[in-house]
Amino acid sequence: MGKDYYNILGVAKGADDAELKKAYRKLAMKWHPDKNPDNRATAEAKFKDVSEAYEVLSDPEKRQVYDAYGEEGLKAGGGPGGPAGAGAHHFNFRSADDIFKDVSNVAQQQQQQQQQQR
């Protein structure tokens, strides 16, 4: 059985982008290894899980595959016996800093759009 990314982030299956982003930021800050020097190994593992969950659920294509086939479907490249074959791994996990930058850029773009609409 694969990981439950919704459970990892503590969101419902129908969570929208804003809910995902909020949950990710909260958990990433909580489990960042620099904030947990006394329990670094656990924090690193949790931080990796949180980042992985956000990486998948924030990408519409990956989320669709995940919802249909679970983590195993992602590893298989799109479902059982998917185009990449069993065992292929197509994740391109980014650092938390890269994800934070993306989240910040989206927020800035949304603010600019709102200001232009006024």
Automatic annotation (TrEMBL):
Protein name: J domain-containing protein
Domain of life: Eukaryota
Cross-referenced PROSITE patterns: DNAJ_1 (PS00636), DNAJ_2 (PS50076)
Domain J residues, every copy: 4-70
Provenance organism: Tetradesmus obliquus
GO molecular function: Hsp70 protein binding; unfolded protein binding
Alphabetized Gene3D superfamilies for the sequence: DnaJ domain
Keyword set, alphabetical order: Chaperone
Pfam families recorded: DnaJ
Record InterPro entries: DnaJ_domain, DnaJ_domain_CS, DNJB2/6-like, J_dom_sf
